[in-house]
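agent: user wants the structure for Cyanophycin synthetase from Nostoc cycadae WK-1. delegating to structure tool.
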Amino acid sequence: MRILKIQTLRGPNYWSIRRHKLIVMRLDLENLAETPSNEIPGFYEGLVEALPSLEGHYCSPGCHGGFLMRVREGTMMGHIVEHVALELQELAGMHVGFGRTRETSTPGVYQVVIEYLNEEAGRYAGRAAVRLCQSIVDRGRYPKAELEQDIQDLKDFWRDASLGPSTEAIIKEAEKRGIPWMQLGARFLIQLGYGVNQKRMQATMTDKTGILGVELACDKEATKRILAAAGVPVPRGTVINFLDDLEEAIEYVGGYPIVIKPLDGNHGRGITIDIRNWEEAEAAYEAARQVSRSIIVERYYVGRDHRVLVVDGKVVAVAERVPAHVVGDGRSTIAELIEETNKDPNRGDGHDKVLTKIELDRTSYQLLERQGHTLNSVLQKGTICYLRATANLSTGGIAVDRTDEIHPETIWMAQRVVRTIGLDIAGLDVVTTDISRPLREVDGVIVEVNAAPGFRMHVAPSSGIPRNVAGAVMDMLFPNEQSSRIPLLSITGTNGKTTTTRLLAHIYKQTGKVVGYTTTDGTYIGDYLVEAGDNTGPQSAHLILQDPTVEVAVLESARGGILRSGLGFEAANVGIVLNVAADHLGIGDIDTIDQLANLKSVVAEAIYPDGYAVLNADDRRVAAMAEKTKANIAYFTMNPDSELVRKHIQQGGVAAVYENGYLSIVKGDWTHRIERAEQIPLTMGGRAPFMIANALAASLAAFVQNVTIEQIRAGLRTFRASVSQTPGRMNLFNLGTFHALVDYAHNPASYEAVGAFVRNWNTGQRIGVVGGPGDRRDEDFVTLGKLAADIFDYIIVKEDDDTRGRPRGSASQLIMKGITQVKPDARCEVIMDETQAINKGLDMAPENGLVVILPESVSRAIKLIKVRGLVKEEVPLQNTPTTTENQNQNGVSPSSVINTLL
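agent: tool returned. relaying tokens verbatim.
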């Protein structure tokens, strides 16, 4: 077997709208292509020996052991690799269950699809599954050591990718509330929401967390001085920088017992408590110096350690933190008890699980000695032996929820303290013998105020009620159900995507909002180009959604991006599907128009239930997508007699219709006439039907998002098929004695669309400079030739500089073949070089003629036109509508339209 390609999907995709995280592996079975598993000697036995847990896979039989039943009866190796890859991730602690295996049109080549939680782990699992299966085929077994290494590697990937329990709690709460989130590229930042409505977090610090509050909380001595001045009970203490000052500091705080800790430490690092003599004090000083140059010496207060969590000025959770310890059973040594305790599946390394494994350090051995024990001591049943002096969970401690026990006065004090320091989220360390009584009654103190406090002790306490502290954070960041999203509109189709995207963005600009949009020629925010290039994939979508100035996102979603990576967002408010026609067939295992329609239907399906799918009623494959989506449906049509649209409107739906020369919105009993097509520059004076269809789709999408008819009309009137607004899309130039048209038509549907305009040119000869991308099928080039023969009076066939792997000259020959099949005596010639071909067409243009250039490089074609001298870019327009016509455009119900549609 051989892996040909591995792709990572990160959003709604061709394989699943709901399962966003998928690995797609293109697998060549090679000599196993026609060999089912039951014909491979010993394979079943070897697979069961290696992975007996596959017994739990149901598969198509729908019962326990169903998959192994398929293996025993005979199934293809691609299917087996899918299940093995999923099981390897399960064994490493990543719970995944979705998989698909489909044979491609290439014999013996399969697409194996597996779910992942971590990208690196998912890709690794796919490769490991192939190795495992190949090993069993070749040797009858997969070495146990190799399997153990695979699982360990997968565990390492999963651990390294962990965001930590606090961040995980926040993400889970965001997902529960439907708030989108994404990881940013630096400093472990998490973005919640999109565009202008986004909030950012780093651990449990938010973009509302004040830098002064953080700085003050990190300076423990300064915090203590501020709180003491405010009348808050805090430990008596001082700061020193040299060992020579330690003895005097101990006397200042009142003598032993004392606490020594670093001035700017965290997570309990470098802290030693309950120090009772000079030898311990010296050792504690040296430990603290490993963390900080300045050292705090404090009086040690007897009591239990509590963490009080304050969010947005309110106490939301309280936990007692118990230091790492073991409980005797009367027979095991302390070392054995530690080992047994660390076997708890809830304990992990660092912060990757709700509890941390117990590890011993210098203070642990001192504490053991103080309690009269060694690691070999056997504790009596029920006897507690503490192994850490500090109660941090990161050193193996546990947490007990005390939220319902804290005294009201302590709640008031904690909330006052956090406001005094200036934090939106803070954790107060409180030492008291009884949290249910006021601190002053029991000689309790507030030891520290922590910025970015951990949540795991509250989210998953060892004892007591888990507290939804992340919910309090969400309430603070998005109060009163404030929106976390921005309007997101996604556009796909075979032709017209870029024009419709730009037009829709332009219409939205009439609302005064900042619009971010992606197209095949670049990514834009407002009036400015952010990044040039074909930017229709997830990365470009993320750029827009991560920008804090963007108020509306309009995203072109091309087939390539969806296939390679999925959509770059969970769902849209509006999904527009313009059309589906033959293009790029045979690429990416999309071989038929129906498969292409299924791919593009991802945009129609990935819409919020209260959103809209804007569908082309005149394209049966697009119209059929209404059955797949859970969103509302809105149709657009060039046919005012459309039966589908008539029924849709009768049922209360909304549609955009081209009727009596108008672009109109029809809803209920009302027809809102937007504008005459001939007054819309994009439609080339009403002579470009496909541009009218694009304008209908954009207008309808804006309308269902509550953009007013007046704003839509203003957008349509001021948007032109020009180099500045739609480069390479019906750019018409007046060269004095003739005109030149540049359009990036490159498939049969776009040739036909351009042809609809060109056939209306009746003032002179029509010359076509034609070609097509090299990665198309032979029959596609023949079709282009046939269409060109029917459109142009004279044809110049050229080839792209980048033949995309096709032998040079092949494409032009096939186009010529199509031309001569339609017109054996056609006036045509082949000029391979695009620059020469364009210049020849421009040179031979007759008076009042039209030269249509369908280039590989739009910018090059436009430059060649402009060097001809005084060139005027223009669009044919009619006169401004009369006052009466304008009055009839605003919500009037013309009987002609109502009678036709209703």
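agent: one observation worth passing along. The chain has 30 helices and 39 strands.
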